[in-house]
Amino acid sequence: MYVCSCFGITEQQVKQHAEDGASTPRQIASACKAGTDCGSCVRRIQSLLGRGACPRRELADRGRPVLSAVDGQDGLDGLEEAA
Which of 31, 19, 22, 20 is nearest to 4 (CA)? Predict the structure, then answer.
């Protein structure tokens, strides 16, 4: 099955690159260009690499501040002072 229609990269090819050491979508892109044109295959590549879950999306779905979670903060710093 094709993962990247732009460059004709199959699921098997992505898996082979992963077995050869590619562990991120960027490394897959370096190996075979998949994900470098329209980008519609990047989520599929992430899932093939076992990185399908998006922690920021999960935080947003729970109503938590997304960017502050990336910094390791709870997003409430400074709000008490502004109130």
Answer: 31
